[in-house]
Amino acid sequence: MKFLPAKLERKLHRLKKHSRSPLKRKLDVMHENARNKVFQQSCDAYKDHKKSEYECRKRTTKMAGGSRETFLSDGSFHQSVGRVLLVAEFFAMMPVKGVTGKHPGDLSFSWRNVRTGFSLVFIASSLANFGLSLFKVLNNPISFNSVKPIIFRGSVLLVLIVALRLAQQWPNLMMYWHEVEQGLPQYPSQLAKCQMGHTIRMVMLVGMMLSFAEHLLSMISAINYASYCNSTADPIKNYFLRTNDEIFYVTSYSTTLAMWGKFQNVYSTFIWNYMDVFVMIVSIGLAAKFRQLNNDLKNFKGMHMAPSYWSERRIQYRNICILCDRMDDAISLITMVSFSNNLYFICVQLLRSLNTMPSVAHAVYFYFSLTFLIGRTLAVSLYSASVHDESRVTLRYLRCVPKDSWCPEVKRFSEEIISDEVALSGMKFFHLTRKLVLSVAGTIVTYELVLIQFHEDNGLWDCNQSYYS
Description:
This protein is mainly alpha-helical. It contains 14 helices and no strands.
């Protein structure tokens, strides 16, 4: 009725109002009062929640068994990942200064830093080792299994270069991550703050312990292999000749070169496993931020909230999505190398499982390595998919908004969640969701069926070529 004059429209409204029965008008007033009361209670609850968040920041917590600084955490990703990056620096990765600092403002990168120099030296060493492996493979018959050293050392070299580039961006990334965290709803308890850091440390600990166990079993199996193919009377020399055959394919045996080859192998094995762990750690951090937002939405599920509440939560959700995009741009190449590496080595190990195992030590190492490789690939897939899963959980709470509280902000919020694809990716070629697990499994089965047709049952203890280099 906007085409009517204002005075006429008011008269028409009063006429409609008086035309209703007194009982109906009384019921409308009761309904409106009840609705306003519920809305006021929801707003008061929201104000009390924000006030408790503010008090939670100022509260001092005492814990038995140690000092407050030892146990108290602010729940930030920077503090949770600090010691993990410190271990990586020991293995010539991520040369960033200040990773154990309390604030991301302490982070810095410098080409004149000792950490950076050590990383550059190891990259040069890895490049030389890759060149020796490439020379050996190209001067021998090339097969699906013989290119394994090139794939392994080439992947390690590529990850080292990408990690050095990521170290330059890390201070800015962590500062932006910290800004996003400051705008999110506060954790309800100290236990909730420590949960992300505890998960990250456990993933790092379990992953590296299993990697260490696999390397020990590999050494035991290689010692048996060297004793079987004993070209000299010295068992130590036989061991290094077989495990570093790409070095002594070009030059004569030297103790210095043997130690360099072993050092290179140990560090390369750590980096090869760490790239999977690093993808999992970033995924855990991003999924935790979505979960932090979802927990706040869960507290007000089905309640009448003001449009400002939904506007605030939508902006917070959008900030996390932008953070995901920035982190994906920074680590997408590492993700791509991780998945392609795991795909290749699973195919190689499954193909070699058709051969007869020459010894118990070899069988134990082989099946432990295969199980660890499949489990690690599955863990990377599921942890990475959790980012996409948590981003979709938000939509459940928006669908529980009461009809009376539905507003344009809620509609806009839900449309953004439905239309956006929030997930980590491998160079934008694929997105890490739960569907990817089935896709990778189907790809492995397809490749394996093709490779089995050309497979010949060769002895694993073939002294003419090494399986441990």
